[in-house]
Amino acid sequence: MATKAPRDDVDERATAMQVGPPATYAAGLKGVEASMVPALRGMGPTRAVKLLGSMNQEDGFDCMSCAWPDPDHRKHVEFCENGAKALTWEATPLTVPSSFWSEHSITELLGRSEYWLGQQGRLVEPVYKPVGSDHYQPIGWEDAFGIVADRLNALDSPDEAAFYTSGRTANETAFAYQLFVRAFGTNNLPDCSNMCHESTGLAMGESIGVGKSTIAYKDFAKADLIIIMGQNPGTNHPRMLTALEEAKDNGATIVAVNPLLEAGLRRFKNPQRVNGVLGHGTGLADQYLQIRLGGDGWLMKAVARRVLEAEEANPGKVLDHRFLERHCEGLPAYQQHLRELDDEHVGRATGLTTAQIDELADRYLGADRVIITWAMGLTQHKEAVPTIQEILNLLLLRGNIGKPGAGASPIRGHSNVQGDRTMGIWEQMSDSFLDALGGEFNFSPPREHGVDTVKAVQGMLEDRIKVWIALGGNMVAAVSDTEQAEAAFRRTTLNVQISTKLNRNHLTVGQEALILPTMGRSEIDLQAAGPQVVTVEDSVCAIRVSRGQVKPVSDNLLSEVSIVTRIASATLGTKVPIDWAAMEEDYDVIRDHIERVVPGFDDFNEKVHRDNGFVLPHGPRDSRTFPTPSGKAQIIVNELEVIPCPPGRLLLQTIRSHDQFNTTIYSLDDRYRGIKKGRRVIFIHPEDLLALGIADGALVDVHSEYSDGVDRVVRAFKAVGYPTARGCAAAYFPEANPLVPLDFIAEGSGTPASKSVLIRVEPSQTGLPAS
After folding, report:
1. What are the Cα distances from residue 635, in Å, to 206, 291, 375, 390?
2. Which of the four pLDDT bands, split at 50, 70 and 90, describes residue 517?
3. pLDDT tens digits, 203-223
């Protein structure tokens, strides 16, 4: 395999950045070029054609990027631009040579960008950083497992270790991992869901009893109205654009609710249609509401009040009374609450006019089947949980749960983040799950709740958590308050990262550190029983089978299941009667255990090998049964605040660029927003720039203002005039993560509130020239 790294670091300063007009459509021939050119260059023609042709196909592997569901009838091409980029990033034949570790110190690598680190190639050998060393050095697998086992067993308490999980981890690995952690004696299982859809799970769980989507893929084509909130499908899950186009073909209306004007919500040029290549494509949003950050819950309340007023004017003809009487409770209190809704507060919170809200309400009232879909633009606010509950309230009023073409549709951001939670990756699993797990494996799982991601960082800062083990991910770059997060990891006694590529979390370490390289999802996983398959759960609760297609880039690589089971065996020995070797040899053994522990997985292996997957049962969706304490869906009264923003200040949201997946940076461009060769940018409405006395293109320092009085600042960002809501700004993460205080979190869920950060913007003090 190739071992030559790409060119050295590139100039990522704001001064090198080029800014052009934002795009007016998504995909098209430019999308094909952006997919295929890097794939052919990065993987080679033969490897690229084989893997792209297998991606998201029934006999292929599941995309390692987003959790968008697969249609019942697959096309020959079932990947999107960003899926192709994710594959190219993972399946590159470029590998990191052994000499790399002696040539580059950890201190030097910390000066490199996340983009440069990811460009060095695949990790193919375990490496170890001893106490006092500034270099990693190659180490054998068994020696690496021995270090992990020794350090874990030397802790005073199992709760002094935390075990993180990334959403790319397959179901079988996730189940084995949480089993090991609980057999070790702790529920410290933070995961990436803590930072994204934790608010969704809590809000929906309290409202309807299930924290997952209530629709199927085919429901998009049956909907009359689709409301897309806090979501940018053109970048974050581009295959959704096909479903939206099919809905438009069938007469659906689409409303976009987003502070930023996004190309992927305006028009879609489908490269698999003649009109998408030679014509104008398909217009998507019929109404585009550029809402003020944090105003979404107020908007839902305002629409709901108009629904109730329409019912009062036309008794018995607007609300779904039969559904409400049979399946819901809480309506009288909600009606009284909305009678007192203050229009002035709604206007200040949303930044929208009465006419705009009236138009949305009329569209909702005129539709029999409504889907409301959302992502992290809603989940990462202080009041994320009540905001999502207001979506559920609105849907429940007209029975838009549990019928074709209607429902609540949270779109997950990582390919198996939902499945990991189903498998037990959560610090707060229910007693019923723990009872079943303990019964299956004849041990007593711990019952005290563990830590989430934010609490894990706080635990490391306070020396309560000493060992960190991460099954994928780059948590130090993903979580808020970068300075605090990095300080936390430097206090650990051991940092273990199970990874495919180099990232910043490998370099932000304490006394000792290990990097354990693993196979990618596109690679064939050959075990003693033969080639293995794994499964994932998508955003609509469908379990899909994933089969690797190419030989691993190195014979030295181990699968995630192998790494987890061998660490477990080395650490636990015979303390708990679990046959880890059998699980590694044949993943059917793991699935048999899952079937007996996790509800909904009856005949798991048969459905995997015969049917290539299945859909999990879902009471609200399937039968309008709601597993809440009362057995009914809850219409919940929530008090919301109008986020204050004093004169001269803005509200900031952190966002992805188009060439990015979570903290993985594919390039320094964002063609949809007109940015090339840089990432240190802040998007601000031109009139706000004028009011602040800042020139478009000037370099600025951005300070966040929080109650603790700490001056959090990022410097030398380029201010770019952009069509966003007045009073609102946006910047890419992880570059803007230092501005988000660690304890600025969503109430109840603990998710970092990185979508409504109070900031002030000042001319830069760096002395660099603007360009």
Report:
1. 10, 24, 21, 8
2. very high
3. 999 999 999 999 999 999 999
pLDDT of residue 770 exceeding 70, the answer is no
Q: Residue 219 is encoded by which pair of tokens?
A: 């429901």
Structure tokens at 288: 């585009």
Segment 530-540 shows an average pLDDT of: 96
CA atoms of 225 and 227, how far apart (whole Å)? 7
Q: Is the pLDDT of residue 771 over 50?
A: no
CB atoms within 10 A of CB 553: 24
Amino acid at the residue 376:
M
756 close to 750: Cβ distance less than 8 angstroms:
no
Distance CA 232, CA 350 (A): 19
Residues, the chain: 771
8-state DSSP, 259: S
C-alpha closest to that of 415 among 290, 264, 587, 538: 538
Residues 280 and 286: their CA atoms lie apart, in Å, by: 16
CA distances 665 to 501, 502, 544, 733, Å, are 12, 12, 27, 10
d(CA 628, CA 707): 37
Tell how strand 253-257 and strand 225-229 pair up.
parallel
What's phi and psi for 345, nearest 5 deg? -65, -40
- Cα angle, residue 22 at apex, residues 16 and 28 outer, rounded to 5°: 110
CA–CA distance, 556 with 470 (Å, rounded to integer): 20
pLDDT band at 12 (very low <50, low <70, confident <90, very high): low
Backbone angles phi, psi at 716, to 5 degrees: 60, 50
Q: Which residues pair with 494 in a beta bridge?
A: 467, 512
> What is the C-alpha to C-alpha distance for residues 135 and 106, in angstroms, rounded to an integer?
6
Spatial distance between the Cα atoms of 532 and 526, rounded to a whole number of angstroms: 6
Which phi and psi (to 5°) does residue 715 adopt?
-115, 155
Where in 631-723 does DSSP place strands (E)?
A: 633-634, 650-655, 660-661, 664-665, 675-676, 681-684, 699-704, 712-721
H or E stretch including 228?
A: strand 225-229
pTM over 0.85: yes
- For 735, phi and psi rounded to 5 degrees? -60, -35
Q: d(Cα 429, Cα 562) in Å, to the nearest integer?
A: 25
Pull the structure tokens for residue 304.
């709901």
**Three-state SS annotation for 76-88:** CCCCCHHHHHHHH
pLDDT at site 3: 37
In angstroms, the CA 114 to CA 732 distance is 13
∠ CA 359-363-365, nearest 5°, is 115
DSSP 301-359: HHHHHHHHHHHHHSTTSSS-HHHHHHHEE-HHHHHHHHHT--HHHHHHHH---HHHHHH
Would the CA dihedral through 685, 690, 691, 697 be positive or negative? positive
Omega into 646 within 30° of 0, i.e. cis?
no
CB 550 within 8 A of CB 524: yes
- Return d(Cα 637, Cα 82) in angstroms, integer: 39
> Would the pLDDT of 548 be above 60?
yes
Q: Which residues contact 260 (CB under 8 A, 6 or more apart)?
A: 232, 290, 655, 683, 722, 723, 724, 725, 730
Please give the helix or strand (H or E) that residue 39 lies within, else none. helix 28-43
Q: How high is the mean pLDDT of the chain?
A: 95
Kindly tell me the burial class for residue 608, based on how many C-beta atoms sit within 10 Å of its own C-beta (0-12, 13-18, 19 or more).
Answer: buried
Residue closest to 268 by CA, chosen among 72, 604, 31:
31
pLDDT computed for residue 15 by the predictor: 75
Which is nearest to 572 in space by CA: 145, 30, 135, 143?
145
**Phi, psi dihedral angles at 138 (to 5 degrees):** -60, 145
